[in-house]
């Protein structure tokens, strides 16, 4: 989920995207496909975990990790629905395409950070801290922290670039 979502957002990066020479339309389609795959992975993971907890008689969504994970999956589903509106902007008659893109990018950043928070909370669980110790735990924790910074930088740079080009 985290890998696919990160790659889906980096598709639009002029510095790091492997698709920088492709048209915007191609980038949008790749972004859409990767985000949909991320959502499907999240739904599959949620289903497997829920089923496993059911089999073992454990409570569902009682930890911060479980609650933020569920919220992330729901939020991502809503964000994907919002992305469909960008594919068909005429469905939103009173909104400009620029405003829809800005809201989608901003709310996408919130969803991405929510996913990173859920991942980090999972790394604080007893199960994870028992398996991953010492320097390995810190290195694992650095992954979502660093990718969050990269994504936030990209979104803010894209916003600033649009602001400058409008003037």
From TrEMBL:
This is ascorbate ferrireductase (transmembrane). GO terms for cellular component: endoplasmic reticulum; membrane. Pfam families: Cytochrom_B561. Its cofactor is heme b. InterPro entries: CYB561D1/2 (IPR045150), Cyt_b561/ferric_Rdtase_TM (IPR006593). Residues 1-162 form the Cytochrome b561 domain. It is an enzyme of class 7 (translocase). It is found in: Membrane.
